[in-house]
Structure formats: C-alpha cells, structure tokens
Amino acid sequence: MSTQAVNAAFVRGDIDYSAAINGMVQTIVRGNPAKILACAVDRPLISLIARKEIRVAQDLKGKKTAAARRAAPRP
C-alpha cells in the first residue's frame, strides 16, 4: 500500500496504526492528530523463522530458503 493510501486510511479512521513513519510525519504536519512511538536499535531488525531443528545459520547450509520483502518497492 502506498504512503498516500496509508495516510488517507489513517485520517479516515480505517486503520489505527501504521509503520510508515514518513507518512505519519506528513499527516501530523498537515494538522491531523497522531502520535509517533519510535525506538532506536544498534543492529538490523531481522527475523529468522525456521523448523525447530534449525538452531544456527550454519544449519541452513544445503537447505531451501525463502525471503520476503518487508517494505513496498519504491517507484
């Protein structure tokens, strides 16, 4: 979903939360009520979901893996 679509849905009350921080800043600047909750981290936020026998990254050697993009592609 585009940032504009997220902003519009938030302003209409269709959604209560958005991780699109740039869009929320724009929404607040335009006078819409919203609060930003943020935290800083010192490493990338990466999750690995695997079967219980996969304990460390080396256990993936020779296995089939897949990845999903967390963010929408930019135009």
Could you give a quick summary of the protein structure above?
The protein is mostly helical and 75 residues long. It has helices at residues 3-12, 21-29. It contains 2 helices and no strands.
Please describe the structure with a list of short key phrases separated by commas or semicolons.
single chain, 75 residues, mainly alpha, 2 helices
Structural class: mainly alpha
Order of helices and strands: HH
User: What is the average per-residue confidence, as pLDDT, rounded to a whole number?
Assistant: 79
- Principal-axis shape equals elongated
The tally of strands reads 0
Number of helices, counting only DSSP H or I runs of 4 residues or more: 2
Report the end-to-end length measured between terminal Cα atoms. 12 Å
Assess the beta-strand content as a share of residues. Answer: under 5%
- State the share of residues found in helices, binned by percent: 25-40%
Radius of gyration: 18 Å
The major β-sheet equals: none
Report low-confidence residues grouped into runs of 5 or more. Answer: none
